[in-house]
Amino acid sequence: MRVEVHVHGTILLRTGTSTEQTESALRPLLDYIDEDSLADVRSIHPDEPGMVFDRNRRVIEICWTGDVGRSFRQLFAEALEALSAHCEEAAPVDITYYHEDGHDEFDVMFVGPTAAAIDRARRQRMMEDLHHVLTREFDDAEISQVHKLVNELYDRRWETGSTTSDGTSTDVADIPLRRRQLH
User: pLDDT class for 164, splitting at 50, 70, 90?
Assistant: First the structure.
């Protein structure tokens, strides 16, 4: 069963990272989508650039939509894990699955040089998401209380070593999402 997926993210790479190193890390993904190189990766939507490696800026810009199968998520997680060795800092990569029945699934995967860097990026993303949701109903003092509690939960999780090893978040399948371009 094929499903349309949109992947969006910006990944900063270490100085000196070559196109060959980048493509080698992403080879399982490139093979899966039947492309020889990052330069060949095009989105099914012509207004999206696909996956672009800007060597001068040391950045991989991803804004790609394609049709994928069930194994995509695991393969993409493996590709990000391989790319982690070349990352300057941790970054989120947003993934939205658009199912034929109108049900959309949202996922976030993280890539980064260390588990601690990924944990910080996950925490930052959570705080941003919480702030966005909570500002509709609560003032800054109340939001600060929630942030404090969530930071305590992250600290406890880090201390016990119970963070997820693959750098991914939980699927949020119960929340209906609108199709949107993340530009």
Answer: low
**What pLDDT shows up at residue 107?**
94
Output the CA–CA distances (angstroms, integers) from residue 66 to 7, 74, 160, in the order listed: 9, 16, 38
Distance, CA of 60 to CA of 182 (rounded, Å): 16
Instruction: For residues 116 and 118, give the distance between their C-alpha atoms in angstroms, rounded to a whole number.
Output: 5
Q: Are strands 104-111 and 50-54 parallel, antiparallel or unpaired?
A: unpaired
What are 173-182's pLDDT values in tens digits? 333 333 334 4
Model confidence pLDDT, tens digit, residues 67-108: 999 899 999 999 999 999 999 999 999 999 999 998 899 999
Report, in angstroms and rounded to the nearest whole number, the Rg of the chain calculated over CA atoms.
17
Domain ranges for the chain: 3-113, 116-160
Query: What torsion do the CA atoms of 82, 83, 85, 90 make, to the nearest 10 degrees?
Result: -120
Largest CA distance in the chain: 52
What is the pTM (predicted TM-score) of this model? Answer: 0.81
Q: Report the SS3 class of residue 104.
A: strand
Of the candidates 94, 105, 74, the residue with the CA atom closest to the CA atom of residue 172: 105
